[in-house]
Design goal:
Strand content: 15-25%
Helix content: 25-40%
Radius of gyration: 22 Å
CATH superfamily of the largest domain: FAD/NAD(P)-binding domain
Distance between the termini: 8 Å
CATH topology of the largest domain: FAD/NAD(P)-binding domain
Number of strands: 20
Mean pLDDT: 94
Strand order of the largest sheet: 8-7-16-17-18-15-19
Number of domains: 3
Number of helices: 12
CATH architecture of the largest domain: 3-Layer(bba) Sandwich
Length: 420
């Protein structure tokens, strides 16, 4: 509709990708983004910390080479040079309790030949262990949890639990096997070619959000920050108007709205939509060390087993950690969390626990939706009663958990539907 305006509520990755899609269909100047905060990107952003004297990421996001929608969008926006690809694909792990480590290194192709190489798999496991578990995950048809699917598995603690918590932000005892199977198939269908870890070279805002924002500006997209949408007027199953920055926005007959609000906000703003209502938290901790550092084995990132932290990432003189599925740790103070996590960091660096450096704790209480079988069923049955509005966000049922790729794909789909 060449005479329509497109109003995107929310400037996270779903909103940015919807605007990106509309730009590429010639609708840039007719596209409006209303973002409630002072920054774009949603949870994918960076902030300046005066004590560190540098930008810190709100949370460390591991991109993978299977995230084609994100990678292609960044390439078109001129942001591909801001990414560092880990080649070949390798995932180093360290068991904090037992003090031994291993590498998981998928083959560069669909044939999982690495399973027969003891140097590229978990100690004291066989190829049969992985193959049986993979078959059980893929063929699961019931609406059950991952731990139910993998009852008796030898790999649950050292393989499936860390990947489940990092990808779905939930424990195997709660996670939907169906969603876990979807993401494992995407990540490992081509072995190392689809599972290469990718990190930003600087920070999330510099390397991901800024290139996209500049691209949208160049195509004439109207981006209005510090502009929460409120006073939404609905008549006869259509959005008629709303307020943004104290200005009333009237919705014309052919205009379309794309809501990319998080699920909890949708439940408040649009009560006729039954969005998921349970969430899981993530805690990130950043430590400022005196010198550039490396982790055990000389790695720049490391998965931890039996530790407080789940993943550790090193960039120059900043050590960052991520704790997924972190609800039970929210009760601790920042100082208590930093003390627990720093012990893990010292072990991962092969050092005796030293004095506590400068640190920053970042808590996201509603980081992702809960992808339990019950909440997944809600995702699969979402209905949108509003004729001129389309839904996007990482909580939409796109067969993926709450993740960057899922948010972007939902934005593309919503924009495509709005145009049609």
């Amino acid at each position: 509709m060449s005479n329509a305006n497109y109003h995107i509520i929310g400037g996270g990755l779903a909103g940015l990708s919807a605007a990106f899609y509309l730009c590429n269909k010639g609708m840039g100047k007719r596209t409006y983004i209303y973002e409630a905060s002072a920054h774009l990107g949603g949870r994918c952003y960076s902030f300046y910390d005066k004590n560190f004297d540098k930008n810190l990421d709100n949370g460390t996001h591991m991109i993978m080479s299977c995230n084609k929608n994100l990678l292609n969008m960044l390439k078109k926006c001129g942001g591909a040079d801001g990414l560092e690809h880990i080649k070949p694909a390798v995932f180093p792990f360290l068991d904090i309790a037992e003090n031994y480590g291993w590498l998981l290194q998928p083959s560069n192709g669909p044939l999982p030949l690495f399973l027969f190489n003891k140097n590229k798999t978990i100690p004291q496991t066989t190829a049969k262990d992985y193959i049986i578990d993979a078959i059980n995950i893929i063929k699961e048809e019931k609406n059950c949890t991952l731990s139910e699917t993998l009852k008796g598995s030898k790999l649950i603690n050292n393989l499936w639990k860390p990947f489940c918590e990092s990808a779905l932000n939930i424990s195997p005892e709660q996670a939907s096997t169906k969603i876990f199977a979807n993401i494992m198939k995407k990540a490992f269908a081509l072995g190392g070619l689809s599972s290469r870890p990718i990190f930003v070279k600087h920070d999330l805002s510099t390397d991901i959000i800024n290139p996209i924002e500049n691209y949208l500006h160049n195509y004439g997209v109207n981006i209005i920050k510090n502009s929460p949408v409120r006073d939404i007027k609905i008549e006869q199953s259509e959005i008629k108007s709303f307020k943004a920055k104290d200005a009333k926005i009237d919705i014309a007959k052919n205009d379309k709205i794309i809501s990319t609000l998080p699920a909890w906000s949708v439940n408040k703003s649009f009560p006729d939509i039954n969005a998921p209502s349970e969430y899981k938290s993530i805690i990130n901790a950043h430590f400022l060390v005196s010198l550039d550092t490396k982790l055990a084995g000389g790695n720049s990132f490391l998965g931890l087993i039996n530790g407080t932290a789940h993943w550790i990432f090193v960039k120059n003189n900043v050590v960052s950690t991520t704790i997924s599925n972190a609800d039970e740790l929210l009760k601790y103070s920042d100082e208590e969390l930093a003390t627990m996590i720093w012990k893990d960091v010292c072990k991962a660096r092969g050092r005796v626990a030293a004095f506590m450096p400068e640190y920053k704790i970042v808590r996201e209480k509603r980081a992702t939706i809960n992808v339990s079988p019950t909440q997944q069923e809600i995702r699969e049955n979402i209905s949108n009663p509003y004729k001129n509005m389309h839904l996007a966000g990482d909580w939409i049922n796109i067969e993926l958990p709450s993740c960057m790729e899922g948010a972007i794909l939902s934005g593309f789909n919503a924009a495509k539907n709005a145009l049609s």
